Amino acid sequence: MSNYDVVVIGSGPGGYVSAIRASQLGMKVALVEKENLGGVCLNWGCIPTKALLKNADVIHTLSEGKAYGFSFENLSVDYGAAHKRSRQVANRQSKGVAFLMRKNKITVVEGTAKLKSATQIEIQPSGETLTAKNIIIATGAKPRMIPGVTADGEKIVTYRHALDLKEAPQSAVIVGAGPIGMEFATVWNRYGADVTVVEMLPRVLPLEDEDISKEATRHFKKAGIALKTGAMVKTIAATPDGVKVTIATGDTEEVVSVEKVLVAIGFAPNSENLGLEEVGVALTKHGHIEVDDQMRTSVPNIFAIGDVTGKLGLAHVASAQGIIAAEVLAGKETHTLNYTNIPRCVYSYPEVASVGLTEAQAKEQGFDVITAQFPFLPNGKALAMNENIGFVKIVANKEYKEILGVHIIGAHVTELIAGPAGMLTVEATAEDLSQTVHPHPTMSEAIMEAAHVLVGMPIHI
Known about the structure:
By secondary structure, this protein is an alpha/beta fold. The chain has 15 helices and 22 strands. It is globular, with a radius of gyration of 23 Å. The protein starts with a strand and ends in a 7-residue tail after the last helix.
């Protein structure tokens, strides 16, 4: 039996970060992982998808050869090579986490963990028991499926199966127009697939500001991606040649035959078979672990972080929660997360980045709202890169022009959102933002320009 100050269950961006911070703060730490270090994000999610998206972006650039002054014949693209590169990137990241574990003297335990008590964890298949003063649960989430539909990994797939494909499908239905759905739609579309996206809600990227969704819709359609919003998938049936999907839009039904169906409708927490109920850890009705602002569960020495908490399913949220949990265990004064002011990103084409309240949310919360937009069309850097689509939108309180939300759509905009997130954190006004000198030429200038519009003194529009 091994004794630790902290045992972390799960090595995703929440788990491994919390383990490192706990070790830095002087605690003896063990990290339990049943698969690959780095969890879903590094191995089968955030990182390999971005590698595939980069390959797809190169293909898009090659298709615009005339704009850049080159031409060629008989272009051949190899999705298998893109897949191989994505796995190499993921493997390198996972090895990097292993190095960090060694560097920080964290014991890595391979296997599946189950709580025997509030201080004891049984590891299978070894049968080893770990004893811990404190436990941090960072077990993440798994893809949620349509009731009655089972992913077979070949014709009906989740994002994880999709990342293992060595050939792009010739045709596909993607169920769900959220970030994962639209990112895979972008990749497969650029590799020549006939892609149809089905979304039950009235618009694509339904959690984004409505103006952003409208702009995204325009560009997705321009790329040749078929969008069916306000639509439901009634049946999915595998056939010898592929999959037949019955789609209902209002009173109209149609059957679409495709090679593959990707189900991307959300996530369910990995909270089962952990022994949580037996030791008294409270769960929500949807199976998420209930935590307070310090990430503490209903059992005082057991903490939970990341997707399993259901707070905000993003890797950087899990990391931030992990740092807070470790600091609480060390007795340090820490901070409280404001989930509204955490950036959210979609890596499709065009990219989308947002932080804070949408215009609709601000109005629902009773704010007297004022908004302003500035397009990338006149932006010198965007024009130089041949990427001058999209815009920046700022949502503010009319009286003091305090910034409530910033929403951006365009090329590479996920790299721009950290600055506005900082502005929201310090409760800055549009005037503060407009007076913050931005470097030229950069796409970030469009954020400053939108602030100029909001205060009534636009320069380049």
